[in-house]
Amino acid sequence: MSWGKGIIIVFILFVGGIGVMVYKSMSKNVDLVAANYYENELKYQEQINKINNSNSLKEQLKVEITEGGLYLQFPKETTQDLSGEIVFYRPSDERGDFKIPVRPEGNGKQFVSTLSLKKGMWKVQVNWKSGGKDYFNEEKVMIQ
Fold this sequence. Notes:
Low-confidence stretches: none
């Protein structure tokens, strides 16, 4: 075998390897944190203000995991004119993400069933508004 044939074989193997890598990388599903990531980044100062409002409360939002669901206990000082949304964010698969409205009972607690959720780690992001102020809280929960 001559040097010329060897170089051609190495070149063909190299190009074939690159082709396989490109094919595999193009067929891999990559979930982004958010579809409009850059817009959200520009609005992040609003998010920081919501977090600061949340941290300045005497009581913090409590998330309690129970059998078959979780309870959200809103701070007593924010239970009047309460509105907002609860986002269940699954970092490993965006297809599982969903939102529900904030609708606590008279005692400031809201129950959310977790029976239909996939097992694993979820981020519970609560955006709520009360008394003209916006609040935000994020908790990581493990559904088993």
